[in-house]
UniProtKB/TrEMBL annotation:
This is LppX_LprAFG lipoprotein. It is found in: Cell envelope. Pfam families: LppX_LprAFG. CDD domains: LppX-like. GO terms for cellular component: cell envelope. It comes from the Bacteria. PROSITE patterns: PROKAR_LIPOPROTEIN. InterPro entries: LolA/LolB/LppX (IPR029046), LppX/LprAFG (IPR009830). Gene3D superfamilies: 2.50.20.20. Residues 1-24 form the signal peptide. It comes from Jiangella aurantiaca.
Length: 240
């Protein structure tokens, strides 16, 4: 999604949010996927390659510390298929009114089924307050590009989530690039990223981004969970 509000928490707080229980003695993190041990930049590059090679992946987006006023993206979920297709739903809130919008994105065109309507219409994502979700899996503009475009890359501690062990890598992203997949109020700002990578496969399983996504003077956080790599999926434009 190209312009989506998100905020990054301090590293310690992000780690606490991701971890259901802290890992201890979970191994050296060099699992069956051949994840490069001790080289966080190489880990991010390998995760980007795996995402670019995937035939499909499921995305789940959740926002935190969102403004009370204006139109904000609360969350969303759906399946993405390369090179730039997505089918799912986006949850927004306009003031106190929530709404769920079904969306289909194919090759740069976005269709939405707006509340109280029975069909899909072609729309401009920015006018609805979010970016094109088809870009999430686009290798030139999406999540894989963010994985390899950060600075100040450092390795974090391992965490265990729902029984799975994740390596954590932190980086700092330029807001302009994040704005290509999420809406961001200040493209010149930096966005803090915490990447959770499967310790065995090397796949990206969670991304937590914190920055000034909305124009309220504060920072917001968006967490993106990735699952179900390479499950059969086909996406086509909705019938008019």
């Amino acid at each position: 999604m190209r312009h989506v509000a998100r905020r990054c928490l301090p590293a310690a707080l992000v780690a606490a949010t991701l971890a259901l229980t802290a890992c201890s003695d979970d191994g050296d993190g060099d699992g069956d996927g051949g994840t490069p041990e001790g080289d966080p930049q190489a880990q991010l590059e390998a995760a980007a390659d795996l995402l670019n090679e995937a035939s499909s992946v499921t995305f789940v987006l959740e926002g935190e510390d969102l403004p009370d006023d204006g139109t904000v993206v609360v969350g969303g979920e759906g399946v993405a298929v390369p090179p730039s297709s997505f089918e799912g739903e986006i949850r927004i809130r306009a003031g106190a009114l929530p709404a769920t919008i079904k969306v289909v994105s194919v090759d740069g065109k976005l269709w939405a089924q707006l509340p109280l309507t029975s069909g899909f219409d072609e729309v401009d994502a920015e006018e609805l307050g979010f970016g094109d979700p088809g870009l999430l899996i686009d290798p030139d503009h999406g999540v894989s590009r963010l994985l390899t475009s950060g600075t100040d890359i450092t390795a974090g501690e391992q965490v265990r989530v729902d029984g799975d062990v994740y390596d954590q890598v932190e980086s700092v992203l330029p807001g302009e690039l994040v704005g290509e997949v999420l809406t961001i109020a200040d493209p010149s700002a930096e966005v803090q990223a915490v990447w959770a990578l499967d310790a065995e496969t090397g796949q990206l399983r969670q991304a937590t981004l914190t920055g000034p996504f909305y124009d309220d003077g504060d920072e917001q956080t968006y967490t993106v969970r990735l699952d179900k790599y390479d499950e059969p999926a086909e996406i086509s434009a909705p019938e008019s």
